[in-house]
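Trying the structure run again after the queue cleared.
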Amino acid sequence: MPKNKTHSGTKKRVRVTGSGKLVHAGSGKRHNLEKKATKQTRRIDGMHVVADVDVPRLKKLLGR
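Done. C-alpha cells:
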C-alpha cells in the first residue's frame, strides 16, 4: 500500500498545536498597515483556530 502524501500548500498554511487543534495565520497583516489603527493590527495578529467544519478536510490533507 503506498503512503499518502501531505498536501504541500496546506502544510505551509496550517499548523497543528500540541493539543491537536489546527491553527492558521490571520488575514490583514500583509500590507496597507499604515492606514490601519495600531489597536487593529494588534488584534488581528497571531494565529486563529480553524473552524470545526473545516477540520476533517484539513486533517485529511495533512495526512492525519
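The helical segments are 8-13, 38-43, 55-62. Worth checking whether this holds up in the mutant runs.
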